[in-house]
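ERR on first pass: missing label on line 2. Operator R.T. fixed the label and resubmitted. Corrected input:
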Amino acid sequence: MMIESIPITVEVNGTIQRLKVMPHHSLAVVIREQLGLLGTKISCGEGECGACTVILDGKAVNSCMVLAVEADGCSVLTIEGLAKNGELHPIQTAFIEEGAVQCGFCTPGMVMSTKALLDENPEPEEEQIREALAGNLCRCTGYHRIINAVHAAARKSSVHSGETK
Amino acid sequence: MKRFNYAEPKNLVELVALLHQYGASASILAGGTDLINHISHGKRSPKIVVSLRGVAELSNTVIEKSEGIEIGVLATLTTVAEHPLVRQRYTALAEAAVKVGSKQIRNRGTVVGNVCNASPAADTVTALLLFDPVLSVLAETGRRTVALSDFLLGPGQTSLAADELVESIFLPTPIEGTASTYRKLSRREGVDLATVGVATSVEWSGNIRIALGAVGPKAFRAVAAELQLKGNPRDMDNIESAIRLAQVAAEPISDLRASNEYRREMVGALLRQALQQALARCKGGECK
Amino acid sequence: MSLEFVGKNIQRTDVVQKVTGATRYANDISLEGMLHGKLYRSEHAHARILSINTDLVRQAEGVAAVFTAKDFSASVPLFGPVTEDQPLLAEREVKFHGEPVAVVLANTAEAAQNALEGIHAEYEILPAICTVEAALAEGAPLLHAEATGLSCNRNIHSSYSYEWGNVEECRASCAHIIHNTYTFPMIHHSMIEPYCVIAYPQHGGVVIESPVQHPFILRRVIASALKLKLSQVRVIPTDIGGGFGAKGYSKYEPLAAYLALQTGKPVKLSLSMNESFFAARRLSARVAIESGFDAKGVLVFQDVVADYLIGAYADAAPRVVAKGAYLGGCGPYKVPNVRIKANAIYSNTVPATAARGFGMPQMVWAIESQLNEACRRVGIDALEIRLRNLPDKGEVFVPGDTPADGDWKQGLKKAAAMIDWGAATQKNIGRSISIGIKNPIPAAVSNAIVKLHADDSVTVAVGTTEMGQGARTVFTQIAAEAFLLPVDRITVIMGDTAAVPFDLCTAGSRSTVSMGNAVQQACNDVLRQLREMAQELELIKPDEEVKISGGLVTGCGGVISYPELLKKYLGFNQGEVVGKGIFKGTKDVSHVLGGLTDFWEVIFTAAEVKVEPETGKVTVSKLVNVSDLGKAINPIQAKSQEEGGSIMAMGHALMEQLIYDDKGLLKNGGSLDYRIPTAMDVPRSMQSAFIENQDGPGPYGAKGLGESGAISPAPAIADAVRDAVGVHIKDLPLTPEKIWRALHKR
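pass 2 clean. output:
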């Protein structure tokens, strides 16, 4: 049985992309290899580390756990889609200001999980932040400053209300 | 990951026809969080992956029916965990669903998928068992219904035939005033499989239900313990007697997560906590 | 001295790239015509290779080449930073589960991966050794029986003994003699970026791009293994997505270099996180320790036998053992009589290597736990016994080495105060305190080159690598301070062995002190040259008081900017001023480690825990770290280093361990079963503070830090558990089951 690529239409960071993808390719692979968006990282490839987190139709997902074909007709936001016209998103600024970044490998996924959380819940409690980030492993920071950064980003967003949307 | 073909049937007729055609060489894709790992780890090698996302008749929500709720095959763990009716009437299920994997996993993975994966440690399965769940199973030949306890056969094994799919799970409305809870012990707080899972519900009448996870080849109701507690669930000595019965019913294995001895003991510790919490909720009238 | 840049929370200079996903890690690099390699690994721990059938694979779609040991022109090259005992691919025998046996090169990673399924190997299984006991047993099979020049008696790669005073004679004077054995599990570094290397031929040699911490050591190891000249091997380190020692020494780079030279093409080997579990781990250890105390709890002697289990190949493990043993008898304390013997013992497990703390977490776990036992016998608390044993500043505690270089009692008291030491606790809540110590790499060299360009921007070229620890930013601050130029005028080039001068390694918390000094010296060298240029041009007089800062040379005769000066001296748009700096650690050939300790890296950790007796579950509710770091060049970076380290340590204290079965198979090699702390596991309260007495040998009185956070938490957490519920656990990690068993005597 011949296995052929499948055409999909997906909005990535606000741009409509028409792609032909192999059925067995994950969204992570297509984002990186076909779209060249290398900010999305692949580490465990089994939904445990969260390095590949993107926002699919408003929800944080592990892009290694989603087949690219499943994204047909959906909208995807990757780390590259966050800063606008060279201006950092308040979440990115908060990560910088709170010292929440070390090696940086988990950072894109962390930022995307934070974005999804704050979009859904602009004023999260500490426990909700921890729960929202539990699927993003970081071995450098010990999470403390990342959690602080999410609090700080929430404060920033409440000042410029609606900005994270 | 090994190559496979992919199909997105548009309706149930197309879907069941595909399942009939491909049988065991087809894998059904709902949330994919188990399936994709199974394929990439070589545990399953489907010729074709059949996605449910385009099937018009299938639901991705929790539907309120006159005598209960119906959890659609595409309802994610997040959807179920956050559903107001689930939180109110089937609290243990909401608590279990939110303890499965990470936020990212819960945003994709489905309760039905969690059930069909048939892990002895599946959090939602343990919680569901409290609520007399009935699965609606569909094949080209027609529909059948099956109780969850009959559906589960063993680790990773269910009564689902190769050409069948579970389209929904029906949970009858619990008796007014039932309170429930799910307790889980794991190696770490965030994102982990249950070392032991205990779900308990309490009715105003004093009827108790207990379901145990990760302490046998499949999650199950600890019936003898339930009977022991019936009508007398607050008496400390009686609780201890019931715990012993639950522990006897448990057949845990030793593995990376814990020894069988510890697991059996933790059935007691968690059951004690779960009962306390469910009884408190019931007393507080939260369960109305 | 008022400082403009040093001591300030200057924004990490590479952080915008990191938060926008623009940073390019090794796996993001793709080269024209690149071949992708995938490794076929042994499914046995110890076995003789009978045959490897690769016929099917060589014809497979997309496959360019397949290598097994038989495809090497001569015998398979061996590599290793200490002992060259590890083959690029297993030759006659596999020595650990997951050892590479064959490699497939294909035009895509997917094709290479799929082709692996066509490989079939036949083995004769041999008995596997996975514990200290098995390795040392009479008649145990010898892992490296064929090796020559090694003390392979009973699988011991090497032993390290240190002794002072007389342990035997002082016993009688002890009021308490305490003998315990502590174990420390195998730990995986679990950096989030898996291993990845790209190698390609260039100028008759080979270029390696890899997230390697020590490019110059890698250059040496590859040159030696492949019989190349140092100048033929160019290592370009990529930004490192977490190192912690895992990426310190050669792993797959020698193989990639060989394949690139053989095929004439760029070769990429990119591993999954799960495969990383087959590459490296922290040494496990069994530490038998006998400690004598007088009636007041003052240490009289320590007698220690530390058996470190290294893996199937030496990697850097013997050095870890030597360093761990060095302070393994005394820790940070004055101990008049010490005897320690430490063994590096081979086993059929994944090669063990450097890991944050380099042998010290294992020893500190034992030493600190002994003090916690002693204070109970003496009837004083964990704080008091430490105060009674710590040296004062300037006091020698390791004979022949640098005296205590900080006010350690001050730091200890600060940590105690931060955790409300002595305040009453509720039921099942406990507290304790511990001290971590480490000495950096002795007699190590760092060079730096600093170039002032014609537009008064600056390039700093160093061999240090950036793995998130923040060295790039620290050097930027040091250079900015030297020139009083804004940080955006400074660019730091890191690691390329063909472009930057020699540096030993990025490890051992050494870079701020050693490379920091070299950078500062190189900046001063530039400033000296500017002054000489101004004098030569007679812009200033030889004896004149001159201020060279902020881009200006200011003398009595007036002011000239750096660019103007360069233009006048060198000509329009020509040249630059090149400064050189070197730092050499105190070399002493008579010293057992080759040199004296340049600074002591000391940290004080206090922990508060809550234990649930019904389940044995421990929650660390509060973690406090105080570092004696002389001067924080970048306070927020320094604090976050210690916090990250201490959560890593909380992992090995509570939940982490690699598990091998009796056949030597790794049972939990992967993110699904090897659990590290998540955001939900970390303490509610994390506090970090410093003792800044400017008493270090680094720039502005700095000492190093970064490893220390990972050294001290385990004993503090374990003793806090004991304080809470009374159980004394000597084997890490403190799993709920272990605590429950101890509580219920099961």
